[in-house]
Amino acid sequence: MTIKFSNFSFKYWALEKPTLKNINLTIEKGEKVVIVGPSGSGKSTLGQCLNGLIPFAVKGDITGHLSINGNDTQKMDLHQCTNMVGTVLQDTDGQFVGLSIGEDIAFALENQMVAKGEMHDIVKKTAEMVDLNEMLHLSPFDLSGGQKQRVSLAGIMVDDVDILLFDEPLASLDPQTGKATIEIIDQLHRDTDKTVIIIEHRLEDVLHRNVDRVILMERGEIVANMTPDELLASPLLNEHGIREPLYLSALKAAGCKVTATDKPASLSTLALDGFRPQLLEWYQQGDTVTSPNAQDPLLSVKNLSYSYDDLRNTLDDVSFNINKGEFVSILGKNGSGKSTITRLIMGVLEPDNGHIEFNGKDLADSSIFERSQHIGIVLQNPNHMISHHMIFDEVASGLRNRGVAEEIVEKKVHDVLELCGLGRYRHWPIEALSYGQKKRVTIATIMVLEPELLILDEPTAGQDYHHYTSMMAFIRELNQKLGITIVIISHDMHLVLEYTDRAIVIADSHLLADQQVNTIFSQPELLEKANLAVTSLYTLAKELGIDRIDNFIRCFINHEANKNA
C-alpha cells in the first residue's frame, strides 16, 4: 500500500504560516521508515495527515495531494483512513476508550465483529506480548506512563490495518520495555509485511532493529531522506539538533572519522577494528576522576513504605538522602514506585510507614502549599499540570499567587521562556503547542519560582535534543550557580549520563542501588533487575576489551561535561 505526498502543504487555521511545506515523499508498501526532527518540525502533523485526523478532525488548508494506495485522502472520510492506518499516539490518555485494559485492547476487534471466544484469545495473546496479561482487569487510567503506552501498542497490534503509525512510541517507556517495543514492532513488520512509520526522538533506540530509511524534518520541510548509515555518517543530526547514538559520540570524542561504509547505524554492524587504536589511546589519556559528593542532606527519605491497595507495597522500606547542591537521578522500571516517591514528597499521598524530612524538618507537618514554597515538582504528563489558556499566564501563575509585582513577573517570565526555547510562543494559546512544547511550559512554570529542590519526572519525554539540551543547560546552571538541588526521575540513560552525578535505582518496590552513575551503568545484572539496559558505551568498552568499564564511562562523562562547560 504505497503512500505518496506530492507538493503537499498544510496550514492550521489558527496559524499564519503553513506547518508542512511542499512535502514530496513516497513510502512503498512494506517499508519501515523513521521520521525524526526537532519539536515543531511538523513530524506529528505529517502523521495526522496520514491517519486522517487532518483534515477530518483537525481543520486547516491543504494544497497538493496525499494518496494512499492511489486514493486521494481528501476524497475519503475519517473511517476509511483509520481502516488503512492504525495509530499509537504519543499522548496515550487521548486514545483510551475502554473501562479496562482488556476492553481497550478488544475495541478494534469488537468493531470488526470478531466472535467473542476468538476475541478473548487474541486479546490474551497480545497482552502477553507487551507484558499486560496480569493487568487486563485494571483501568488504563490507573497505570504508569509506560504501562499506558503498552496498552496503546496492544490496541493497535490487534487491528487489521495495512499501515502502522507510531507517534513517539518510546516516550514514556523504560529502556528494556522500549527495547522490547522496538522488537515487537520489528517482528510485526517482518511477519505481516505491513508498512511501518515511526515518529521518534530516540533515534539510537529505534535503530536497535533495522529500518529502511530515516526522514529528517525541519520547519515543516524534508531536509534528508536517506539510509540510517548515510545519515549517521553525515553532520545532519548535529546541525538539526537530533541526538546521535552514544557510541557515535564516543567515537567522535576520540577523534574518529566515520563514513557510511563503516556501517555506523548499529554498533553490531560498525567496522570497529579500524577505530580501536584511536579509542584506546583516547581512553588511556582521558580523565577518569569522579567528583566527590556533597554530604549535607536536604531531603531525607527514611524507611518509606506505601501501598495503593493495602495488599502489595509500591514502595517497601526505601531510604536515601538527597544532599544540598546535588544533581541526582532516580531510575527504575515503569511501575517501580519512582513517581510514587514524587507524590509522597508533594503531600498528595501519605506514607504507610516511614517519613520524609526536608532541611531536617518532617514534611508530615507541612501542607501541600507549604511544601511547594521550597520544592518544585514537574510531573511527567504536562496535561496534568496546565490550568491556563495562554502560555504567559500559565508560567506567571505561581509568581502571581505569591503576590509578586507585575513588572517583576513580566521580566522573570520573559527570561525563563527564552531559556526554555519558548520566547516566540509567549502570547500563544497552550492548545496550539506540541506535547514536547507543553512539557517545556510546565518546566518553565516551576523554574520561574526558583525552588530549593527541583524534581523533574521524565523531563525529556517528547523533547527534541536541541530544546532539552538548552533547557538542561539552564537547569545545570541553576544547580551550579544558585545551588538549587536537582532530582531527575528518568528512563533516559543519555540524560542521566550527561547531567547527574549519582543514581538511585528502585525496582519492585525496593532500593537496589545508590551509587555513582558510571558505577551503576557498568553493572548489567543490576540494570536488568531495574528494567534498564546497558548503554552502547558499555557495549563499546566491552568490545574494546576494557577491564574497568566504569572508568571508560566516567572518561566519556567527564569529556561531555568539559565540552558543555
In DSSP terms (H or I, runs of 4 or more residues), the helix count works out at 23
Give me the side-by-side strand order of the main sheet: 6-7-8-3-9-10
Structural class: alpha/beta
Q: How far apart are the first and last residues' alpha carbons, in Å?
A: 50 Å
The average pLDDT is 89
- According to DSSP, the number of beta strands is 20
Radius of gyration: 24 Å
Low-confidence stretches are none
- The shape, in one word, is globular
- Characterize the largest beta sheet: strand count, sense, and whether it forms a barrel: 6 strands, mixed
Features:
alpha/beta; six-stranded mixed β-sheet; 565 residues; globular
3D structure, described in words:
This protein has 565 residues and is an alpha/beta fold. The N and C termini lie far apart (50 Å).
Strand and helix map with partners:
Elements: E1 3-12, E2 20-27, E3 32-36, H1 43-51, H2 53-56, E4 60-68, E5 71-72, H3 78-84, E6 85-88, H4 101-111, H5 116-129, H6 145-157, E7 163-167, H7 175-192, E8 195-199, H8 203-206, E9 213-218, E10 221-226, H9 228-233, H10 236-239, H11 246-253, H12 276-285, E11 297-306, E12 315-323, E13 327-331, H13 338-346, E14 353-358, E15 361-362, H14 368-372, E16 375-378, H15 391-401, H16 406-419, H17 435-447, E17 453-457, H18 465-481, E18 485-489, H19 493-499, E19 502-507, E20 510-516, H20 517-520, H21 524-529, H22 536-543, H23 549-564
Parallel strand pairs: 3-8, 3-9, 6-7, 7-8, 13-18, 13-19, 16-17, 17-18
Antiparallel strand pairs: 1-2, 1-4, 4-5, 9-10, 11-12, 11-14, 14-15, 19-20
